[in-house]
Amino acid sequence: MGRRPERPPNEEARTQAHGAVELRAVTRRYGRSVHALRGIDLTLAHRSFTAVMGPSGSGKSTFLQCAAGLDRPTSGTVHLAGTEISSLSENKLTVLRRTRLGFVFQAFNLLPSLTAEQNVLLPLRLAGRRADRDRAAEVLGQVGLGEYARRRPDQLSGGQQQRVALARALVTRPDVIFADEPTGALDTGTAAEVLALLRNAVDTPASPAPNGHGSTYGATVVMVTHDPTAAAHADRVLFLADGALAGHLERDPSLSVPQAAEHIATRMTQLTAAVPGAAHTGTPYARVAA
Ligand SMILES: Nc1ncnc2c1ncn2[C@@H]1O[C@H](COP(=O)(O)OP(=O)(O)OP(=O)(O)O)[C@@H](O)[C@H]1O
């Protein structure tokens, strides 16, 4: 997805030594009685696309918020792109979010008074970088909206608005993109386009910076979804149940998206119905495809 900003070699090494996202013994409690996360341990590899699924109230949003540094765990540690964020000050965390992470939400969250281009440039402005209009044109082109730069959100369809939101998430060349139900408000065809763009953000290697210090990998995507078809585009599907990891499915390239979606839907049905043996990490997993 184009060139990434330069980073000092030691920072680059630190980034690569860890997964893109690492959670160790992460818990999140609300008050005394609500255990939204009960001890999550996981490592998400660089350039991986992970879908997070689970019944309503299983902790998906809480997981995403804690993993993305939008919320602080009650206990445990979170590493993001090589940085341990649990102990970062609010200011440093904000800088990390603005420079290293991208966000896509179900409700698009575009500023209505700004054009598509201005919305895309916003993260660069917030990060104190130059409002690089060439870069905005590049990412709007990548999401197929090169001709729509001057339109405001109310002059765009839902799918086009979500593509602007994706361009906005990509503009800073983030290490990790967190997506919360990115296709929840879209029809099937438009959803497939957005998912293909997320997939592309992972699969397209970024070219190295001229001095060789830039990253050479694409983005890492973490996506919460209720939709098995959306999850079928991921490399791995993690299932949460009652605040704990309850198993996973790995991508099997030999399966089509509809076939993979069927496997995922079956696992979700088992989880929701709490079939004995279906909801524990380590159970044999069906191999699924994107
Ligand atoms: N601010 C809060 N205060 C108290 N309890 C909360 C708060 N936020 C979430 N919870 C509780 O934590 C648990 C996990 O909620 P979370 O929103 O993470 O689930 P979810 O899997 O994303 O659900 P859904 O699919 O319905 O969006 C639920 O029991 C929820 O009621």
TrEMBL record:
**SUPFAM superfamilies in UniProt:** P-loop containing nucleoside triphosphate hydrolases
Q: Does the keyword Transport apply?
A: yes
Superkingdom classification of source: Bacteria
Q: Which positions fall inside the ABC transporter domain?
A: 21-267
Which Gene3D superfamilies does the UniProt entry name for this protein?
P-loop containing nucleotide triphosphate hydrolases
- UniProt xrefs under InterPro entries: AAA+_ATPase, ABC_transporter-like_ATP-bd, ABC_transporter-like_CS, ABC_transpr_LolD-like, MacB-like_ATP-bd, P-loop_NTPase
Segment forming the signal sequence: none
**Annotated keywords:** ATP-binding, Nucleotide-binding, Transport
Coiled coil residues, start to end: none
Q: Which GO terms describe its molecular function?
A: ATP binding
The protein, known as: ABC transporter ATP-binding protein
Species this protein is from? Streptomyces iconiensis
